[in-house]
């Protein structure tokens, strides 16, 4: 008996106020509750947020001598491509693939840093110590995530970036 009474009371409570009553107007509600926000329709639309550094849809290529690893900390993901000469077939193949399909990496905040001169002694070469051709993916936190001794497809690079914890935080939960 108590259970039936409880179910009836809950059903009545879920129905809410009677349908015959008029909906309260915004003015009377705000008088009753002064902390209530103004109605949504009365709010002015917020101006669109401006991107502090608008980026194009083209992948950015930099020389190792023109950029330092600290320049990209917490802002970009450097993909560093090393070779002993600019004519190295693996180096040429990797750069061509990135130039052709690089737009897929722009949304992942990738910048390509190239170093094809071992004699230059760049900070990238001192820190990462490559031998011959090498592709190194560095995350925004400055840690090396992937090293590859052979060219890698842009699609594979994008998938590898998407598996990184920082990238997952940027994108949010999977839907």
- Rg over alpha carbons: 28 Å
Order of SSEs: HHEEHHEHEEHH
Strand content: 5-15%
* SS content category: alpha/beta
The profile of the biggest β sheet is: 5 strands, mixed
Number of helices: 7
Low-confidence residue ranges: none
Overview of this protein structure:
The two termini are 45 Å apart. Strands 1-3-2-4-5 form a five-stranded mixed β-sheet. It contains seven helices and five strands; from the N terminus they run ααββααβαββαα. With 175 residues, the protein is of the alpha/beta class. The radius of gyration is 28 Å and the shape is elongated.
How would you sum up this structure in a few lines?
This protein has 175 residues and is of the alpha/beta class. The chain is 34% helix and 15% strand. It is built from seven helices and five strands.
Descriptive keywords:
about 180 residues, alpha/beta, 7 helices, about 35% helix
SSE layout and pairings?
Layout: H1 2-15, H2 26-32, E1 60-63, E2 77-82, H3 89-101, H4 103-106, E3 110-115, H5 123-128, E4 134-138, E5 144-148, H6 154-162, H7 165-171
